[in-house]
Write a structure and sequence with these properties.
The protein is α+β, with helices and mostly antiparallel strands. It contains 17 helices and 45 strands. The protein has an 8-stranded mixed β-sheet, with helices on both faces. The protein is globular and about 70 Å long. The relative contact order is 0.10.
Length: 804
């Protein structure tokens, strides 16, 4: 059984449908809003793609011309394709399966071996599915999205295939024993869809069945039962949610005692749901709290986590608890449940993951953001609890559990410790080291600390710092700050060859902040930043940045920030709210236009997190924090690197494009990188992923590590931008206000090359330049048909930078 984590559910966004777009546009139109860059929302349109191509080419010229780019890309590719890297296991009976990509298998393979062989130094893997070969045969660039298998044999599985990394998928029936796709078997064409096995001849399927069967958020809400040997269009409806829901789908639970439970989960909002149980009399509503999640079935007990307080028969069950109910009582009277507590949070320890083996319950928690793991065993009417012996000060995750015996794999990782997979036996509580990732960078001189910042409202916000042991507290350390802050997703330390090799080894400091909006301190930590309370999240992040400066770990000049998806929104907010606090900003696959997000890609499904423009109070708040709205002319912003992908059908590339276009309108500097494939990720294959990270760390190195802002100690400086709309002749002022403090410290004694080009309207564009003191260069561009043409301006200046 593959462990399904909450973060995965958060990531499972779906494409917007016409209804959502119409509703959102009506709400925006009612406010008199117009969007001059709406044309960039045409994801694959000729005009949009021409703009993307031009911006990509410009950015490539800037970053790929850096002499560090080639070695960084080579290092990143070496890390990505390292044959020694950890092959994460997925247990199916006595076999271990693994999705694997390397230089030979660009799209990847599904391979298998025995559990015993997996533990050996060099397992003898057998290829089960070659996605490159399959894609070549089908003429589609397939990306694996996993397996959904029939309990208990795990022989018949639905293989999920994505074209280029999209969330929408195609599913085909596969036999793991024969290693072949089932001839005449179940095949589900391209759609956002959810599948559950009832038996070997029956599937429950939620998908796009045609007009009126998808929600405004783009999720399916109609579930049908499909029998083997019949056509898909002959499948019979067994459950229907509502078009106003986020989604509705099936779940089938089994346990070792032979119990089978069929559920239909109706997601009313992203965080609130209704769960129905199938009975001989039809679907019956379970009287669970709206904010709760069914975790599984074990020993005839239904296990549920609750994200809100639950009062039952005068007894209050605490938010963040894990509870269990006897299945026979649930089926007898689903309207009157009798939960018993399995786990209850403390002031510092909070529930994270839950999974089942054949006879035991596995639970991971965070205790002040330190990983813990436990085995719970049903006994009589209660439970026994046994802690697993995991290393202190580490991150712990459930990788895979086996529902036919009590074996499981646990992942242990940290910033400086190579990730390791441990094979456990829930029956005995034993843990045996199975595999350890290779050391990808030299961490011998590094250390990790956990510190705290104080947010604007007095809340203590913890954060981790990885840095050299001999760190000098003088404000000169290049520092990269990362966070997510949303959807109850917990951020914990993890081993990354990219961070280690391309940042820490070069003297960089890496920081991970546990700001509100996440799940590190339970559901309440998340709820503190919902909707109109979201400013707390942004205040938390800024407080960590300010604390790093106050401790003299770094300075504004040396402090960069990075985040993706919801974290990309965080980056946009921080850049517009605190433009003078950051020296570099990496914005990845972001939300940025918060007045229009509900009609872009899966945006309508996230109203529970962000609020809606249809609610006046929420619209006013969204307008106040929306980076796209708050980007203003005449403000000196740090030059960001904006990354997205064309095939991101979750958040979509529209946000990134429009934000960049508005920066261009205001003559603000920016770098833009949009790859075609990859979905909501860094790339669809390892080479693409390596290129993405090389680009990111070259940008960060230029901005934060070079001897002065925008000025390299090498003979050629990185890109700067001369803002403002001017008419020829153009005057370049070499003292840029954003870097004036350091520029005034500059002394000159060498030579560099300066390049200038202008756009068709005579506005100055990106410039390679060195900053001087009190010097200017006058330049009159050549004219053609009344318009300036692109020209290079060569200026030699002598310089030597005194670093501060």
């Amino acid at each position: 059984m593959e462990v399904r984590r909450f973060a995965g559910l958060v990531a499972a966004g779906l494409v917007w449908m016409g209804g959502a777009r119409a509703i959102a546009q009506q709400n925006v139109a009612a406010s008199g809003d117009t969007d001059k860059y709406a044309w960039l929302e045409d994801v694959s349109g000729d005009r949009s793609m021409a703009w993307v191509k031009a911006e990509n080419e410009r950015t490539d010229k800037v970053l790929e011309s850096d002499p560090r780019y080639a070695p960084y890309q080579a290092e990143a590719l070496k890390i990505a394709e390292d044959p020694r890297r950890l092959p994460h296991p997925e247990l199916h009976g006595d076999e271990v399966y693994n999705d694997w990509q390397d230089a030979e298998h660009v799209r990847g393979i599904l391979r298998k071996t025995t559990v015993a062989d997996y533990l050996s130094e060099k397992p003898k893997w057998v290829t089960v599915i070659d996605y490159d070969a399959l894609g070549k045969k089908d003429g589609v660039k397939w990306v694996s999205k996993g397996l959904t298998c029939l309990y208990p044999e795990d022989e018949l599985c639905m293989v999920t295939l994505s074209a280029g990394g999209e969330d929408a998928d195609t599913q085909r029936e596969f036999n793991l024993k024969t290693g072949k796709f089932v001839e005449g078997g179940f095949v589900l064409p391209h759609s956002k869809q959810n599948v559950a096995w009832v038996d070997k001849d029956t599937l429950l399927v939620a998908r796009d069945w045609g007009v009126g069967t998808m929600t405004a958020s783009g999720y399916p809400f109609v579930v049908k039962q499909w029998k083997r040997g019949t056509k898909l269009e002959e499948a019979k409806e067994v459950y229907r949610g509502q078009a106003s829901d986020i989604s509705a789908g099936p779940t089938v639970l089994n346990d070792a005692q032979g119990h089978l439970l069929t559920l239909f989960v109706r997601a009313v909002t992203f965080f609130e749901s209704q769960t129905f149980v199938m009975t001989p009399q039809g679907a019956k509503l379970l009287a669970l709290p709206a904010k709760s999640n069914v975790q599984g079935l074990i020993d005839g007990r239904l296990v549920v986590s609750i994200d809100e307080d639950w009062s039952v028969d005068g007894k209050k069950l605490q938010q963040g608890s894990l509870v269990a109910m006897k299945l026979d009582e649930v089926m007898k009277d689903p309207a009157h449940l009798k939960p018993a507590v399995v786990f209850e949070p403390t002031a510092q320890e909070f529930l994270q993951e839950v999974s089942m083996t054949k006879g035991h319950l596995l639970v991971t928690t965070l205790n002040h953001v330190q990983g813990k793991a436990y085995v719970y065993t049903p006994k009589g009417g209660g439970w026994t609890k046994k802690p697993l012996d995991v290393p202190a000060n580490s991150s712990v995750s459930l990788i895979s559990t086996n529902d036919t015996d009590d074996r499981f794999f646990l992942g242990i990782t940290g910033f400086l410790t190579p990730s390791a997979d441990w094979l456990g036996d829930a029956g005995t509580g034993s843990l045996v080291l199975a595999k350890t990732a290779p050391s990808l960078f030299d961490a011998s001189a590094d250390v990790v600390e956990q510190l705290e910042a104080t947010s604007k409202d007095g809340t203590k916000v913890p954060y981790f710092v990885a840095h050299r042991k001999d760190l000098k507290y003088d404000g000169t350390n290049p520092t990269l700050l990362n966070a997510y802050g949303g959807f109850q997703v917990s951020e914990t330390p993890y081993y990354s060859g990219y961070i280690g090799k391309l940042w820490l080894e070069h003297g960089g400091v890496y920081v991970l902040a546990n700001i509100r909006g996440g799940g590190e301190f339970g559901p309440a930590w998340h709820e503190a930043g919902l909707k109109t309370h979201r400013q707390r999240i942004y205040d938390d992040f800024a407080a960590v940045g300010q604390d790093l400066i106050a401790r003299k770990i770094t300075s504004t000049r040396r402090l960069g920030i990075m985040g993706g998806s919801n974290g990309g929104l965080l980056m946009g907010v921080e850049m517009t709210q605190h433009p003078n606090l950051w020296g570099a900003v990496v914005i990845q696959v972001p939300l940025l236009d918060m007045l229009h997000y509900e009609h872009i890609a899966a945006g309508a499904s996230w109203v529970g997190e962000y609020g809606s423009v249809s609610v006046p109070e929420e619209r006013a708040f969204l307008a106040s924090i929306s980076p796209y709205e708050q980007l203003k002319p005449g403000v000196k912003y740090p030059e960001p690197l904006i990354f997205t992908t064309t095939k991101d059908d979750r958040v979509g590339p529209q946000h990134a494009r429009k934000f960049a276009a508005k920066m261009e309108e205001y003559h603000e500097p920016f770098l833009y990188d949009e790859i075609v494939e990859g979905g909501h990720a860094a790339g669809a294959d390892l080479k693409e992923t390596a290129k993405t990270w090389a680009t990111v760390y070259v940008y960060l190195t230029e901005k934060l590590m070079d001897s002065a802002a925008g000025v390299s100690s090498a003979s050629e400086s990185p890109v700067l931008h001369i803002g403002g709309s001017v008419k020829p002749p153009i005057v370049i002022h070499t003292v840029d206000p954003h870097y004036s403090d350091e520029a005034r410290q500059a002394k000159f004694s060498g030579s560099v090359l300066v390049y200038l080009w202008v756009d068709q309207h005579g506005n100055p564009s990106h410039v390679r330049a060195v900053q001087g003191v009190g010097m200017q260069y006058k330049f009159k561009p050549a004219m053609q048909d009344g318009n300036p043409v692109k020209v290079d301006l060569y200026v030699k200046v002598n310089f030597q930078i005194k670093d501060h």
